Amino acid sequence: MNAEITNVIEQSAKAEENRDAIIQAKLNVAANYLLLARLLNENHRDSLYKLLGCDSFDEFLGMPEVGFKRSTAYNLIKVWKLYKEKLGIDDHTMLDIGHTKLLKIAPVVEQDKDEWLGKAKSLSVSDLTEEISGVSGARQLSPPIKSPAPPPLMACINGCGPGEKSHFPITRGAGGQEVEEWWVPMCRECHSLFHVNPKEFVWTYKRAWAKYLYGLISRGE
Q1: H-state helical runs in 154-205
Q2: Is residue 33 classed exposed, middle or buried when 0-12, 13-18 and 19+ CB atoms within 10 A define those classes?
């Protein structure tokens, strides 16, 4: 066997190995999206973001360490609610199709679940789009889950600039309810630092906090 033939065989083997690795990586990405869909839905449904010091789910998504695009998060929740909770589709089928195609067929999949899941597996996204455009009475996707309007901007208590309504991390968990009076305006960065170590943060800015809280007391708020 000459060197040229040997090289072709080696390159062919490398190409097949690369293809298999890409397919596996694609499945891993799909599995992570499915896991994210479940976790995001759980956080939103059970208001777990409140236990983390956030006043809304959108605020949780905007936390620096989470950093999730709002539309992506709500689309993943939409996929989980429709395909897992309503239609009961198994994980293998969802992983095989992928969240992009699942979103694409969402307006019509309930007309004939098996038919549309089969098309999603075999057709490209562009072909699916053509198929869906030819269906009359395609159900429109439900409007995005609405979250509370963000609070008006206020001056951060520490003088950093625009702030937001930031609750103290107390009376939360174990069925505890928020106490509306227990909040101060803080910018996003101060808000994040505050929840890392509340006692140390309050001590560092004790003069600003004392001035703010005494002002509330004097106004009877």
Answers
A1: 188-196, 198-204
A2: buried
Handedness of CA 197, 201, 204, 207 (dihedral sign): negative
Q: Is the pTM of this model over 0.85?
A: no
Residue type, 149: A
**CA–CA separation, 78 vs 58, rounded Å?**
15
Do 158 and 190 meet the contact criterion of CB atoms below 8 Å apart?
yes
Distance CA 186, CA 153 (A): 9
Q: In degrees rounded to 5, what are phi and psi of residue 123?
A: -100, 160
**Three-state DSSP state, 186:** strand
Please state the domain extents for the chain. 3-133, 154-219
Residue 166: which of 201, 204, 211, 218 has the closest Cα?
201
Per-residue pLDDT tens over the stretch 140-180: 445 555 555 544 556 777 666 666 666 555 444 444 444 45
DSSP state, residue 83? I
Give the containing element (helix H, strand E) for 8.
helix 3-45
In the 3-class helix/strand/coil scheme, how is 18-48 assigned residue by residue? HHHHHHHHHHHHHHHHHHHHHHHHHHHHCCH
